[in-house]
Design a protein that fits this description.
Blueprint (H helix, E strand, L loop, with lengths): L14 H7 L11 H26 L2 H24 L3 H20 L4 E2 L3 E2 L1 H19 L13 H20 L8 H12 L9 H28 L6 H5 L1 H26 L9 H4 L22 H4 L2 E6 L7 E6 L1 E2 L4 E2 L13 E2 L11 E9 L4 E4 L1 E2 L1 E7 L4 H6 L1 E4 L4 E8 L4 E8 L25 H10 L6 H15 E3 L16 H9 L3 E3 L1 H14 L4 E7 L6 E5 L4 E8 L3 E5 L54 H42 L4 H18 L10 H8 L2 H15 L8 H17 L4 H9 L21
Parallel strand pairs: 15-16
Antiparallel strand pairs: 1-2, 3-8, 3-18, 4-10, 4-17, 5-6, 7-12, 8-14, 9-13, 11-14, 12-13, 17-19, 19-20
Helix pairs in contact: 2-3, 2-6, 2-7, 2-8, 3-4, 3-6, 4-5, 4-6, 6-7, 8-10, 10-18, 14-16, 15-17, 19-21, 19-22, 20-21, 21-22
Length: 787
């Protein structure tokens, strides 16, 4: 005969329960059909939403096929293990075997025979992708499509995640823990995504709804199992379990949402959200390279100037070839990115086979042949979509390409050597016809630059006198450069000398000498500084163009530089700043510097300095600000968020802590009462309170002995007789009897707890039934009262 605890539950302290607890998991009974169906449906739905969160990372049809097959395979293996009662090692072997079979066709389809059978090289890439694919996925531009073996991380996440979810739901004693697996998978999918896209809230809400449904259905299964086991639970409770589960889950969701809103309001980030790819170390840092603008003058050396540098075919007429984009200036050289701040223009990442381009324009396949090496920079045209190299080392060259989508600049690790040929898949937008005189500055963030010199400000004030507005001022300044400037590269003896370089000293010399002589190196820097001074975000582009025809051979001396300014409503607009080539007039004589004779020194009258009432504050330069520590800022933001979450959690937990504290205080007061009779009656009250909190119904007006029979513990009957005797007998209790009563009270309370699930123990500890007015005891009841 099976020994059962109160409520129809098997007491694990009995021999039969101990034998059941020691039964191996492999021999456990298979799940009921309803449990199996609900668990599999929960697994499939939850991981479908996780795969939807992964979609922005790949955006390719092969990923959809992979997600369907991987989730279905993982769920099927878990179901087979539960139905056939496989041991743990059997399930592991089966899952590894299936992953080996489906892994290469799904994640590395290029390494298969007939698209199905895996090659040895494919198995090697699959194995290495499981370990290294995560890092590679974080150092490549998104979306990656089916490029190389980058689908392996998605395969591992979806396959192993669905397998663990279904296995926990079907084969463990705590199936509710299965909901944590897709939750963690969703967080990982978001962390692998882009840092410039919002969190997929719709997908997150859908996943939360699925988890709520799982909690409700799981509770219904537990109720059904309890009733089938012959428990005493009320069928009405079973029918209302779903409603109560939804109510509690909804309340929890509202509290969590409130905490998230409060944290977002208090610690709202001013930049894009941080994901894993935001903090991973990039393999290519352009700030370690010399500025390409510093070598501009070398392209015009006489032996090299007439040589072909690039051959371009297929480019739309009027397009430009971009070599590098420079947006930071330290007063000496213009460079890519900045070593002082974290600039988006300095972040170069790997790219997949093809990347998305949202800009409108003409799509073109442009063939470029690099005749003269361009260093680490890869010439591009328009918006970069993809690239295909020619030659036996095409795959190796393709893997070495890095792109900065902010500036449209591409780089090739190891350098772009002469003879490199490739076809560029690009979208070439039409240059906007913007009138600078009618424009206003945009709001794009760019790295800071060195302050403009006094010579530049004085010259700018002179050419913009009487002009109001940033746009008209920029148009007037650029027109003045074209009128006053003359072009000389300083390499032709017949031309006036023109010093190379673009430091503030060289720009000051350009503005103060007459005539104004320089080349694209100086004029582009001057125009970029003027635009910044007037409030326009600006940057310098080094390249060739505009291209006159579909096929063109560009010479070395065709290299030029122009600026791009951010115009409100239009974005980055290219602006040519070079003056027309014309004959340079002779240099004007320098104005003599007036020299004044020294005057006789006259002693000034003595002045008594005023007495300072208080110490003056230390002098601080207006531009000096303490450097902001990114790590400290991140830690403070995390600490603030954790503090808010802890405060909300403390607010939520306060009622429950209050209930436990009130019960502990009541128990201590009863146990430490000075009168032995009061202590004994208080012990009986403690027993009846514990019985009420554990769900036992105590009828109104029941005697102590009747209550003891309801409790069902032998010691409860002894306590009832002792309480009756001390309550109604004239003689006082014996010495030490109160201590023995409380020892029995502790034993009865322990017996009530034994054999119950942890959830039921928590429910009893937090129950407020015993804190209400005692049932069955009227205010005119005879006998002594316990506290």
């Amino acid at each position: 005969m099976v020994n059962a605890a109160p409520g129809g539950r098997v007491n694990p302290g009995r021999p039969s329960a101990r034998r059941s607890a020691r039964r191996p998991a492999a021999l456990a009974a298979p799940p009921r059909p309803a449990v199996l169906a609900s668990s599999l449906a929960f697994t499939l739905l939850s991981w479908a939403f996780v795969s939807a969160a992964l979609w922005p990372v790949y955006r390719a049809v092969p990923f959809v096929v992979l997600a369907v097959v991987a989730i279905a395979a993982g769920t099927a293996i878990a179901a087979a293990g539960a139905l056939l009662r496989w041991p743990a090692w059997g399930g592991i072997l089966a899952s590894v075997a299936v992953l080996t079979i489906i892994g290469v066709p799904l994640a590395v389809p290029e390494r298969t025979v007939y698209g199905i059978l895996p090659e040895p090289a494919g198995l090697l890439e699959l194995t290495s992708g499981i370990v290294l694919g995560w890092r590679q996925l974080l150092t490549i531009d998104l979306p990656v499509g089916s490029y190389q073996a980058l689908l392996v991380p998605a395969l591992v996440l979806l396959y192993v995640g669905s397998l663990l979810t279904a296995s926990i739901a079907l084969r463990t004693r705590r199936p509710a823990l299965a909901g944590a697996v897709p939750g963690l998978g969703f967080l990982l999918a978001v962390a692998l995504g882009r840092d410039d896209r919002a969190v997929p809230l719709v997908t997150a809400v859908a996943l939360v709804v699925v988890l709520m449904l799982w909690v409700a259905v799981l509770r219904r299964h537990r109720r059904t199992d309890s009733l089938r086991a012959g428990g005493a639970d009320n069928p009405l409770d079973a029918r209302g379990a779903v409603v109560r589960s939804f109510a509690s889950a909804t309340a929890l969701l509202l509290v969590a949402g409130g905490a998230g809103v409060a944290a977002g309001v208090t610690a709202s980030p001013s930049t894009d959200r941080v994901v894993l790819r935001s903090i991973v170390e990039r393999p290519f840092d352009p700030r370690e390279l010399p500025s390409p603008l510093a070598a501009f003058r070398a392209a015009f050396d006489p032996p090299r100037a007439s040589e072909i540098a690039l051959r371009v075919s297929g480019a739309p007429e009027g397009s430009r070839v971009r070599i590098a984009t420079l947006d930071s200036y330290d007063g000496v050289v213009f460079a890519v990115g900045s070593a002082e701040v974290s600039a988006a223009s300095g972040s170069f990442v790997r790219i997949a086979t093809e990347r998305e381009v949202e800009s409108p324009g003409e799509r073109a396949a442009i063939e470029i042949e690099v005749v003269e090496g361009t260093g680490s920079w890869l010439p591009t045209v328009g918006e970069f979509r993809g690239v295909r190299f020619a030659g036996d080392d095409a795959a190796d060259l393709r893997d070495r390409v890095r792109l900065n989508a902010t500036t449209g600049t591409a780089a090739l690790i190891g350098g772009t050597e002469a003879g490199t040929t490739y076809v560029l898949d690009a979208v070439v937008p039409e240059e906007p016809g913007v009138r600078l005189a009618e424009s206003s500055p945009g709001a794009t963030a760019v790295p800071g630059i060195a302050a403009a010199s006094d010579e530049l400000r004085a010259w700018l004030d002179g050419v913009t006198a009487g002009v109001d507005g940033a746009g008209p001022g920029l148009a007037a300044a650029l027109e003045a450069i074209r009128e006053q400037g003359y072009v000389s590269h300083g390499v032709d003896p017949a031309q006036p000398a023109s010093r190379s370089g673009h430091s503030l000293d060289r720009i000051g010399e350009l503005l103060t000498r007459r005539p104004m002589v320089g080349d694209a190196e100086q004029y582009s820097v001057l125009a970029a500084l003027i635009a910044r001074e007037l409030g326009f975000p600006s940057r310098i582009v080094l390249g060739y163009g505009p291209i006159a025809g579909a096929q063109e051979s560009l010479r070395s001396d065709d290299l030029t530089a122009w600026i791009e300014v951010d115009v409100a409503g239009e974005g980055w607009v290219p602006v040519d700043v070079m003056p027309p080539e014309r004959e340079i007039p002779p240099a004007e004589p320098q104005e003599p510097v007036p020299v004044s004779r020294p005057q006789n020194a006259v002693q000034p009258p003595a002045e008594v300095p005023p007495v300072a009432d208080e110490q003056s504050p230390p002098e601080i330069e207006p531009g000096e600000r303490p450097e902001q520590d990114d790590l400290l800022t991140l830690l403070l933001t995390i600490a603030r968020f954790v503090g808010i979450v802890l405060a909300v959690a403390a607010l939520i937990a306060a009622p429950f802590v209050g209930v436990v504290a009130a019960k502990a205080r009541r128990r201590r007061r009863r146990r430490r009462a000075a009168d032995p009779t009061t202590r004994i009656l208080g012990g009986w009250r403690e027993v009846t309170d514990a019985a009420a909190d554990h769900g036992l119904e105590i009828p109104v007006g029941a005697t102590r002995r009747e209550v003891a029979r309801i409790i069902g513990q032998p010691q409860a009957g002894v306590l009832a007789r002792v309480a009756d005797r001390v309550d109604y007998a004239p003689e006082p209790p014996q010495a030490g009897e109160a201590d023995r009563v409380w020892t029995a009270v502790d034993a009865v309370r322990a017996a009530l707890v034994a054999g119950r699930r942890r959830r039921e123990r928590w429910r009893a500890a937090l129950s407020v039934r015993s804190l209400r007015r005692y049932p069955g005891r009227s205010r005119t009841e005879r006998g002594r009262r316990a506290p």
